Amino acid sequence: MALAQPNPGSPARTEDHGGTPPQQRNTPPMRGTLATTACMETLQVGYLHAVAAAAGCSLSQPFPDNGIDWHVSHGAPGHTVDDEVTVKVQLKCTYQIAPNPPGATFSFTLDNAHLVKLARTPVSVHKILVVMLVPRSQDDWLRAGHDGLDLRYCCYWTNLAGHPVTGGHRTTVRIPTSRIFDDRALCGIMARVGAGGRP
Questions:
Q1: Number of domains making up the chain
Q2: Which helix (H) or strand (E) is 193 found in, with range?
Q3: Residue 137 within a domain
Q4: Mutual orientation of helices 36-55 and 183-194 as an angle, nearest 10°?
């Protein structure tokens, strides 16, 4: 399966090749034939797992999936509504938006039925939408070195509670670029929910 070329201007790799013969360094690896969209789904799950691990959260996956991908739970003595609180997470992934989008928000389009589920209010368990932006080419998704693993690009989150449906079949929502989804953001979400508030 042919993959699209890397985005123009992508930085060159700088990792230590550790004995890889020079003739093999510029040869693309023989990747599997799994559809790129399926690989994108797997990548965003890996990002979520890393964030949850760093935040001290547990993960569970609803079965069967009813429009929500993951339940993230956070136990802490500071919670007032319960000793452990849970947030439902819907993951999305796209390569159609550039990294570090300019401006305060970027546009993302959802099916109306999906938006209705995420926008329902009031709820007993809050929901958030997490959107991951990735490079178009799988060659640019990861950078590995002795000091770390760089997963590209980034996830952003929003709470769509109360958001209206405005399109005929699909509705465009705005995702704030200030809401980078990392372990500190997830801990903040859980602290607010644990105090009886919204994410």
A1: 1
A2: helix 183-194
A3: yes
A4: 60
